[in-house]
Every structure is written in C-alpha cells, then in structure tokens.
Amino acid sequence: MKSYARIGLSCLLAAMLMSPLMACGSKEEESSGPKKDMATETREQLKELAKSDERLTGDLENKTIKWMSDWDINSDDTGKTTPIELAVFQERYGGKVEFHQTTYANRYDDLANAINSDEGIDFFYGGNWDAFPKGAVRGMFVPYDDYIDLDSELWADVKDANDAMMWNGKHYMAIVEVTGDNCAIIYNRKTMDENGLDDPAELFEKGKWDWDAFQDMLSSFVDTSNEHYGIDSWYFESGLSASTGVPYVGLEDGKLVNNLRNEAIEDYQNWMYDLWQSDYIALGVGDYGWTSRDYYIGEGKLLFYPCGLWTLGSEKSQWSKTFGEDVFFVPVPQYDKADAYYIPTNVNAYCFVKGGHNPEGVGKFMDCFRFSKVSEGAQQISDQQFRDDYEWTDEMIDMKNKMNEMALEHPVFDYYNGISTDVTSVLDSSEHGVRAASRGVPWTESVNSIYDQIQNYIDEVNETQTSN
Known about the structure:
The chain has 18 helices and 14 strands. By secondary structure, it is an alpha+beta fold. Strands 1, 2, 3, 4, 7 and 14 form a six-stranded mixed sheet that branches. The protein has a four-stranded mixed sheet with strand order 9-12-8-13. A hairpin with a 2-residue loop joins β5 (166-167) and β6.
C-alpha cells in the first residue's frame, strides 16, 4: 500500500460467506470443504519480506492466539485463500490463530460465557460497529495501549482513526484498516446504455455524481408499470446518509453526541421522503412486494442496488449470475452542501478481550496486519490474491481503492449500533427510525418521536465514563 488503504475485504467476506455454523467453543473446527493455502513460493516471498523488514520487531514466546467469531481468520471452505496478514504472522512469529466458533446472533453471549469461565479468548472482531463503545462500557474488552505502538511507522496512516475511538482516554478498537466498502451503489452498465443514461462512473470521474444526478437518473428510468424500478436493498438508508458527513450518533471529545436534529440529516431524510413519494424506492411499490430482488440488476429491471461490496465477494460465476457481466459500482452520491465528499466508512478492527491469555500475541498479529497494508510487496501479493479469488477486473479494484482512499481521508464514524440493542432497534426502525422516511414517514414526525429517547440512552452511557 502507498498512502491509501487498498484491498481489504477478506475478513468481511469471510463473515458474510461463512458456511452453516457449528457450536461455540470448539477449537479449530474442521470443515468438510476444501481449504486454500497460498503457493509455496508466495509464502517464501512473504517470509523474506517479513523477516527483512525492521518494522516487525521482537519474538513471541506464546505463539497461539484465541479468536472467537462466527467466521474464521484461517483459510476456510468459501474459496478464501489464507489471508496475507495471517501468513505473515505465521512466517515471522510462528503464530497460530485458534478458532473458537460461535454464531453472529450469539457471539456476545458466548463471549461473556467464555470470559466468565476463563477460556482465555484473546480477541474479537470490532468491525461490525456494535462492539464500541458497548464492549468497553460493559468491561468485555480491554485497552490495547500496552501492546500496540500507534506512533510507529506501521500504524501511521490509521493512527487518527484509532485516536478517534477512545473511551476513558484509552484505545479499545484496534483499527488496522479504514475502507469505503460499507455501502456502494451497484448498477449494470448495460442497463444504463440501453436506457440512454450516463454511466455513474463517468459522472463520478467528472465530479458530477451527486444527489441531483442520482435522482435525475431515477426520474428517467423508473416506470413501475413497465417493470422499471429504482432502488432496492435492505438497510441502505444509513449508507447514503453518510454522504452528509454527519453521523446519527457521533463521538466528540470522548463523549457520544446525538445529531438527529442536525440540518444535514434533516436534508437527507427529506430527500429520502421525496424518493419514496416518487416511487423510486422499489420495496413495497406496486407488485414489487417486500422481497429484495437483487437479480433485477442483471435483468435490467432495477437501476440501483446500494449495498456493501461483500455482495460481490464471491466467485465470478456467482456475482455475475445475480448482477450481470456488466456490473459495476460507484461511491454513494455526493451531498453538495457538505464541506467534503463523504462516503460511509467501514473499519477492519479488533478488540482485545478481558482475561485474554496472550494479548502480546494479538498485538503482534495486529502489527502483521498493518505490515500487510504498508509493505509494497505484501500488498501486491494481496491484490493478486484478490483477483484470483474473486475475478474482479482492474477497473473494479481501482474503484474500490479510490473509495478506500476517500473513506480514510474523510471518515464518517457512526456509533449508534455500538451503544445497545435498544438504540439500534429504535434507529433502525422503519416506523419512526432513520429508515422511516424511505417508507413514507415524514422526518419531523420521526425525530420528534425518538430524539429524547435516544438522548437518554446516550446520557446513560456517557455517565459511565465518570463512574469507571
């Protein structure tokens, strides 16, 4: 990697593509499917890169770190090759990741049980946005300040992102990568061409990809009586909202902040309401029903599918079957009143678990992850691995890299999923939450209904800082 974030979907893709899950607590469960390791010569190349680079220091006495998740860091049966960062950890430190499997729904309960029984789980995924600050407040996670040097060259380009997520003056989210893949506008170029529409990628390149252009294209295309639909996808609203640069719940000076009455968010919500009134949001319109039809992109019946890029993170035969050979994607459209071009920000992040037996090992693994991003040679291997696994074109990879660069330059961190399930339930509601405007509920009605409730939850969490 040069000065910007590069390909980094491996962890997210593994999470989304995981095969049916087995019981929690088992160690290194064996899958019946094939597992892919990198070629021997590639391993040798990585070994030489890692051992000759002075940015990776020291050795490990305890070489095993215990990982609890619903997806495996190790190579698995989804087609994922051994990740570069893991190979570096293995070759430089003789490291090993011991997988303790759980399910997505039960992962916090299972982690709490593991902590109480002193199983020594060392680390846990934080990139789902529901770990922070909740895990710190509840004492499930511990600061990593003694094990990671954010002032080192390895961590320089993500230091600000890590510093932005501090609680009680300590770091709890080890952010190894900031990406722009959380929500992209997926479309089919053939559909654009056949309907006389500009290619969004060309509009983006010219600096003309904004809310107005997005809506104008919907206006030209949508004709529900002729099976021409506008936007389909679940939970896309917060992704497009990030274009305002204002999170629903932010973090300022170490305190959570309620931004629901911010003018930019009001603008966005009113825009969503306008799109709904015009029948541009497909779900629930006419005969479309309430089942997402992503395959309509490939059939030329749907214009936009806002979604995380994990949906293109499978073998080409799978993603092209759904979205067509001419599928492409661009960032969410720009909000012209914002002071910069903001897009939804994702983080690849990990939390050190309370009672972990090997935090030093996790720290070294995190350093290896950072090495895989800042080493030019390691990143070239990673890029090629990505091409081989998922058959993306160079143009797709270039757009993904550009989105990563944008997110790192102007990150938008929204914490509403990291407070409690109650807050998530209120704000994700399609009745009076942040998704309600796209279902025909005016924002003034929603915000008046939920603002004080959300503020009370935020106040409760903020008060824990003074009591801890």
